[in-house]
Please model this.
Amino acid sequence: PSQAPREQLPPPTPKYPPIFEPRVLSNGWSKPPSQEDFDMPEYPFKVERTRNKPNDAIGFLPVYSKVRIGGTKKTTVIKKVSGDVDAFLTELRGTLGLSANDNDVVRIRTGGAIEVNGNRTREVKEWLAGLGF
Model:
């Protein structure tokens, strides 16, 4: 007996609108908002930027593209997510317009990295930078 295909739920509506207009450079780096004129809202999740840059420079958002299976499968990997990962996944799905119940498109990998099918790196970086991370 084969199972009937699951009905796709519509993408969730994001709860946290962008609060900052980032300028993402061609290498993927974006300057976070300055702490003096910006109050970071309380999010249930946090994404930490990379560290150990020369001259105490501000790091990158930990969002990477990955190519596997002989170049035929492209994915986006998001690292350093802490806090309420389920809330992060809901916001991510809503921002990217992905179904709320499709676990084949967005999944948590071993070690806590989040993987999204397709190269959505720029979209994810712009979303995270817009939230102030």
About this structure: Helices lie at 85-96, 121-131. The chain has a mean pLDDT of 84. DSSP finds two helices and six strands in the chain.
